[in-house]
Amino acid sequence: MASAELLYKQANDAFFEDDYDEALELYNKAIDLDATNPEYFLKRSATYQKMKKKGKESLADAEKALSLIESNEHTEQDSIKAKALLRKGIALFELKNYQEAKKSLESSKELNPNEKSLATWLKKTEAELEKIPKPTPTPPDSAGFLSQSRVRHEWYQNDNFVIVSIFIKNVKKETVDVYMTEKSLSVTVKLPTGSDYSLELEPLAHEIVPKESKYEVLSTKIEIKLKKANAGAKWGVLEGEDAVVGSVAYPSSAKRAKNWDALEKEISKEQEKPEGEAALNSLFQQLYKDADDDTKRAMLKSYTESSGTCLSTNWGEVSKGNVETKPPEGMIAKKVKSANLKFFFPSLFFF
């Protein structure tokens, strides 16, 4: 018969393989053999959390672990108690008991302030508490103030970065707080209403490099560039578990999905469009190409006789006589060269 310690080790292996059903069964067996080890209950609590909709069970195990810790002396009591309080706080958060969750998380921080995930969970909890209606009224949207629900964010990626854009206009840099770890992103912005906008992404789909990541506060948005730990990998989702994919339709948190490859092509086309004189010349060519015979005669006659200062499509008017040369004020008209005719009216030279 396997010992509780061996079952616990096997359960941990299943947990790290994301086989939570197998892990739960093995943790149950380990606890049946030894119900005095708080670590067993803490790992089962974490397993319940991963399985979703098991908040009550996760909370019960965290509280059981705390009671065992407090009733027994451990060589690293503060460390394991901090872990149990963190687990309890997360379970309370999942049950939407944000006030109690904050208390538990703050107690954990007092014992172990270096725990990386604590800052993220505290920010998430405080963000939820901010959403609870307060007695003082907030300015109406009609006065031009943003609310949390009206702020949108989108994301896209290239080989090296995942770029997250939060669309809030005219934000001051000192009102923006961005916190990153290898697997999380937390953004808090002070809104004109006095409340905070919060974006909490944890866990991110893949690891990032916080030291090589950066953000910029622009006039229309906050742009955050997350450096991929695995350069070249395509993220299928921004948050949660994800497999590396090669999809060309990048995801977005907007209500309608955006095909970023298609968008890039549209932008490229826009950049390739002629401007200024080149755009005018292109327009002349297109007009002539699509015109009927009378319109073509009118364009050619008016352009030639006016030395390039007039372009008419009305043959009925142009056919009545010579078209007068009328250069813009301060400029001198020059005779139209055959090269110009070939450029504007190329079909005349296709023999």
UniProtKB/TrEMBL annotation:
Keyword S-adenosyl-L-methionine appears in the UniProt entry: no
Taxon lineage: Eukaryota, Fungi, Fungi incertae sedis, Mucoromycota, Glomeromycotina
GO cellular component, one term: cytoplasm
UniProt KW Acyltransferase keyword: no
TPR repeat positions: 4-37, 82-115
CDD domains the UniProt entry points to: p23_CS_SGT1_like (cd06466)
Domain of life per record: Eukaryota
Keywords: TPR repeat
UniProt GO molecular function: protein-folding chaperone binding
Protein known as: SGS-domain-containing protein
Family affiliation: Belongs to the SGT1 family.
Organism: Rhizophagus irregularis (strain DAOM 181602 / DAOM 197198 / MUCL 43194) (Arbuscular mycorrhizal fungus)
Pfam families per record: CS, SGS, TPR_11, TPR_8
InterPro entries recorded: CS_dom, HSP20-like_chaperone, SGS_dom, Sgt1-like, TPR-like_helical_dom_sf, TPR_rpt
Stretches assigned to the SGS domain: 249-338
Domain CS: residue ranges: 148-239
